[in-house]
Records
---
Amino acid sequence: MQAVAADGTVTCGADARLLASLAFDNANVPAAGASAVTLATLTFTPGRTGSVRLTSHGYCLQGQLTTDSEIRVAAGTSESDAFSVTAGRIGVLRLPGSVSASGEFALAWTSEREFTVTSGAFTTVRLYGRHAVGFEADTCSGWFKVEGPVQ
């Protein structure tokens, strides 16, 4: 059971499975060297202490490559928290610049990690995207959700 307040925050019962979710469309990810951007933000209040699962999936349009391009997507409370997890928990899209100097490529990604929460504590998590390599901005679309509790 969950309740949604006027400000969009979600309060969840102890046995909730989907605590919060949000779709996003055409979020701009700047070229390498810039800070990560926030693709989506979820705020919720868990009904019990324990672990929840932060999951995301979607695609990014990488276009007109003249150099290598790599976009990374990860969830956490901050950019440093999001990207401090093991590589297998981060969504990665990589295209070599030799693929084509024209055209667009839509590549899919997924990310997942467990996150510790405290019952009744107002919690905000974000999904971040950044170029690790690449000189052009690209756009990403997808879905971000919090599931729990993790058994």
---
Amino acid sequence: MFDDFFEAVLADDEESRDAHHRLRYEVYCRETGFESASEFPDGRERDEFDGSAAAFLVRSRVSGDWIATMRLVVGQVGELPISQFLDPEERKATVTAGEISRFCVSSRYRRRTSQEVRIARTSSSPVPGSVGSLLESRDPWILIGLLRAVRQYTDERSISRCLFLAADSMASAVRAAGFSISEAGPEVEHRGWRRAYRFHWNAAEAGLEKRSPVVARMFGRRPAYCPASEMIREHPLASSAEQAQGSQAQSGIAS
């Protein structure tokens, strides 16, 4: 399970935020081309929204490597990057909200065949689109682990609304895991066809045990993340050069 092999980390110090931006650069500039590499000569992808965002990482407990990122941009709904893609009524909401974006997984991790990759697999033959089929893919626990971290972070700061822009395939995976989401905007062309969605955390948690007991047990465990500044690192972190050797987007959630 996620907590046996991975750890979600709030990148709140210089070293971890540097790792977060470097991994984003490898995915969004070098792998997908969503952002222009020439605009980031220092090898760190960032934008004007990072100043008001919480940056998250996933660390492998086995190697000590940073292997995935996600960020949560916090602000009034109309100030978020996603606001241009929202329905008019959703955009008018005068609440503090969080937008989930920049979710990606290192291709170095995705190429591994070790147990920390195989933990997501189930013994049965699941029906496509079911929770079981989601758990058989390589990286579902990483996504769920990061969403759990976001959930705790928003709870601690009374952030009442959580939005994300995603391809239909990613939205289906989130629903298959047992989460409750609703459409918050029309389908738009933005790095492929995507749509704005809104999480309904309370509704999701109320029914999660019935829909997916495995996910419910994991999602309810706290603490969901550790601030990097408080970590006792058991492994020396990979050098910047080593961390820069290949990353690949699981780019369903991006803006």
---
Amino acid sequence: MIDELEPYLWPKTLGGWSVFFVAVLLTINLAKEIYFTASGYFQIIPWKNQPARLEKLSIEDRANKSQFVRMEYSYEVNGIRFKGNRIDPDAQLVVQMTNKKIMELKKASEESNSIEIRYDPKNPKNSVYLSTPNDFYFISLIAIPILILSFLYILIIFRKFRNPRK
């Protein structure tokens, strides 16, 4: 199978090599992004879910018609009240959200002021609101085809070094 793909995948000109190296750099960057996103999510897996009171919600409209959200919330653990403003595992304070998620937050701020957060049971002052719990899976779906192509390139490179006449 690799023999049939090799003429299409192996760069033969300067343009082909340029595309190849850009693809390698993009793959490295994507792998780094996946690693940091995954490590952030894996860090908060053992954290506990906790209802929190949405204290402040601000929505910023940016020039590219995106909406960014900033929030402050408070929650209680063992009778002690804590405040937080962290959104998503990578400790962002302002985050772009979908319209659906923004509407949910607006509804929560108008009605019950209740949202769900996660806090670290070892250090309850550390907490996070997850705006996109499926972010890690989305990045993984993008990464799978790129990683498969990278693997094919690695196989072709090893074959070239073992048999340089091909």
